[in-house]
Amino acid sequence: MNNDDQPNGTPWMKSLLVWGGIFLALFFVVSLYGKGADVGAQKMTYSDFRARVADGQVAEVEVGELRITGKLKNNETFSTVPVPNDVTLQPLLQQHGVRYAGKAPDEPNLLLYILVNALPFVLVLGVAFFALRQVQKGGGGGAMGFGKSKAKLLTEKAGRVTFNDVAGIDEAREELEEIVEFLKDPGRFAKLGGQIPKGALLVGSPGTGKTLLARAIAGEAQVPFFTISGSDFVEMFVGVGASRVRDMFEQAKKNAPCIVFIDEIDAVGRSRGHGLGNSNDEREQTLNQLLVEMDGFEANEGIIIIAATNRPDVLDPALLRPGRFDRQVVVPVPDIEGREKILSVHMKKVPLAPDVNPRVIARGTPGFSGADLANLVNEAALLAARRNKRLVAMQEFEDAKDKVMMGAERRSMVMTEEEKKMTAYHEAGHALVSVNEPASDPIHKATIIPRGRALGMVMRLPERDSYSYHRDKMHANLSVAMGGRVAEELIFGYDKVSSGASGDIQYATGLARNMVTKWGMSDKLGPLQYEDQNEGYLGMGASQRTFASDETNKLIDAEIRILVDNAHVRATDILKAQEDKLHALAQALLEYETLTGDEIKQVVDTGKLDRPDAPSGVPLPAAITGGSVPRAGQRPAGSSPSALGV
């Protein structure tokens, strides 16, 4: 625990100013004592002095080697600089009755001399002292505090988080609520022989609420709660991490029963034996000490370790065994019910218009984590503020969702009419094939407004959360992916197709390869796995590992080609049979740039689009010929996997 918490600001700078003020004060005092008695005296030339002596105006003088001081008969004091070796001065003073005396040479001011000469060294030592103090504070505070723990005792008097603030992850919350009950009433469980869990590991994707759950435990448990990051243990000095672990557990023992929360534990808990050169490196020493403290010969009664990570696959097996982390609590991405609850929690902080429906927003945000939903509500509030609205309406949430999912609109991008036509027919091809594929997800929106790195896209949203995909849906996705390229071939000719389908081709190829090599959806190859995606060296990147022979690899390539070619044929059949609807959709996109799913269905069913600003509807245009390939450097239309569009 860091015991030298200081107030806000820069304490070392304040100390430096204090010491500087002390030095300046000493210098000022010494300077005052070192001044001579001629302060405030009238200065005159030596000839003027002799003239006044001759006129009888001088009462007394004190003659020194470097200065003559004295008093006139009117009690005024004066000083002058004598001429060296003037032998006539003494007779002149005697002749006119002036009292005179000699002055001993000025003795050097020893204190001033020492201070002036020692001041540079003192300043250098002072700067070195404060720099060393800052480094020591970074290691744990205090002199030689490198090995002190950096764990902080969490006291949330304001902004306290409880389990009521945690929504959408009910199972994980129930697991941790039981730990809080253990701490509040251990006797109820001890009567039946139950022991308090020693540790709980929170596992989940980034943004799912692991740290929020830990803060809720701190708010509910009513016991000391220490928090530290896994990276705070690791230091460049050997042995510092292990020392910090020991110090952290010593602090925890003094405050038992208590909870210690280690965030991002994978920074210190990675599997041992993978060090470069010497495997017994600093990180592994820290991990060894952590393993001993969690469950070694010395019992740590009353200390519960809660850790969070999004990389459980890299953790050391000794860290995951019961007795250290008795429970692994999975914090999943919320389903539609959970998203609705999370949205309701965050929407309490913003003024909402009556038309806002959290259920509709939750349905349109599959795969969003808690952090994503919090960002969505914040973006909607910012949009409403920019539009000078007093309430956040459903339109702001829809626009914010499009911005988060598809990227910000780039209306400033200048596209030629031919490029717009090419993009419109490309996206219309995706949309029309999707409408005619029963297994495809419903279309949410189609646009030819450049968003993010795409010139246009078709967004499809599932009606419910999907946890597995069927073969018919995969074939539908393949044909939808080919819809954009097929539309370009039909309307502009095979020689005029653009690079706009690059992302679609990449998606279709990857999906077909997985169907053949991983999911056993090839009749010729059967239900066998031929490829495995494994992590690269030191966790950098990933690589495909193939288990097949050369002959089987050729068969794999042929099966992938068949799947993609069949999808191309299905898309071609659909678009050829409904070419008039393809023209209608493309014309509507050119006219309005963005169409909703209902508007696309209306155009497909009726051949026109009725909007308040278009009372006569959109007529069917004649076939458009000609086209242009998107400019180099631009991401082609429909190239985003989330857009297809797929």
From TrEMBL:
Topological category with respect to the lipid bilayer = Multi-pass membrane protein
- Amino acid composition bias (Polar residues), ranges on this chain: 637-646
Q: Which InterPro entries match?
A: AAA+_ATPase, AAA_lid_3, ATPase_AAA_core, ATPase_AAA_CS, FtsH, P-loop_NTPase, Pept_M41_FtsH_extracell, Peptidase_M41
A molecular function (GO) term: metallopeptidase activity
Q: Which cofactor does it need?
A: Zn(2+)
Instruction: Tell me which residues bind Zn(2+).
Output: 426, 430, 504
The UniProt note on the cofactor reads as follows: Binds 1 zinc ion per subunit.
**Which residues are named in the active-site annotation?**
427
Location of this chain's protein in the cell: Cell membrane; Membrane
Enzyme type, top EC level: hydrolase
Q: Residue ranges of region Disordered?
A: 607-646
List residues traversing the bilayer: 16-34, 110-132
Enumerate the spans annotated as AAA+ ATPase domain: 196-335
Q: Which UniProt keywords apply?
A: ATP-binding, Cell membrane, Hydrolase, Membrane, Metal-binding, Metalloprotease, Nucleotide-binding, Protease, Transmembrane, Transmembrane helix, Zinc
Q: Which residues bind ATP?
A: 204-211
Function recorded in the entry = Acts as a processive, ATP-dependent zinc metallopeptidase for both cytoplasmic and membrane proteins. Plays a role in the quality control of integral membrane proteins.
**What protein family is recorded?**
In the central section; belongs to the AAA ATPase family. In the C-terminal section; belongs to the peptidase M41 family.
Protein name, per record: ATP-dependent zinc metalloprotease FtsH
Question: What is the organism of origin for this protein?
Answer: Novosphingobium ovatum
Task: Read off the lineage from the record.
Answer: Bacteria, Pseudomonadati, Pseudomonadota, Alphaproteobacteria, Sphingomonadales
| Name of the gene encoding the protein in the UniProt record | hflB
